[in-house]
Amino acid sequence: MLYLLEMMTLGQQAMSVSVFLPTIRHTARLSVKLLVGVWLLSCVPAMAQIPTRFDGSVLIAQSRLRLREGDRGPAVLELQRQLDSIGLFPVAINGVYGPATTQAVRQFQRIRRLDVTGIADAETLDLLGVDLSRLPVGLSHPVHGAISSDRITPASSRDDVRILQRVLRTFGFNLEADGVYGAQTEQAIRTYERTADLPVDGIADRTTLIDMGFSAGTTGDSSIRDADSSRSPRGRYVAAIIAGPSQLSKVQEDFPNATVERNNLGEYISIGRFFDQSDAGTWADFASDLGYDARVLRD
């Protein structure tokens, strides 16, 4: 009898365990799901902060609401065009924010009763009608200035083509910088592409232009860019090409701002005045590389 009672008790315990086991399993599954859910929720803020590949450029574009000396590119090009349209920019438009652009911006700010800083801040740009968010993404050359796009084709503006031709001349191509993307310019591009081991199509696309020294933003040939920082009409050191007025138009194909000047030894062509002698030397060396008889003169 006692044996039967023990057997019945064991049977009831087994049944209790068998009934309870599914409950344990169910509870365990719920616990796992809960833990996974909590973990996923904790990841949401971090996941939300992971930027897309476009965020960087968008943030830069949104926060870059001012232009200052040393900047270059399509934005500076548009600023100079607007200043020129109201008669405040009497020098060549080249997309480089140098001393002439600073002076023009200061004059505009003075006339419009703004803070006179020489920096084209958001208010200055707005009054000039320069909307940075609507400007095309272009490239810039450290010497010859900015272009309005990241490729140059026969349909591009004469200004862009002229800059391309000036750059091609630095590589030894005998081109006239006339702004016409004709057969001679196309052949020069094909020759450059073939020599540089690039796809050959006769079109100066982004890859070809960057290989030539163009870049986005203000990067480029640092020696030329840094030398430009001490450039000033009041500089005592002149990067000079020893040639007369008859050669001015030819020199201006490579240096649009070149002017004829005179000292006690005679006339020469100035491609820039600088406060720093070494900066003037950098430009003179660059002109020498193009085949000009160039040197540094001191007033």
TrEMBL record:
Coiled coil: none annotated. Residues 72-128, 157-209 form the Peptidoglycan binding-like domain. SUPFAM superfamilies: PGBD-like. This is Peptidoglycan-binding protein. It comes from Adonisia turfae CCMR0082.
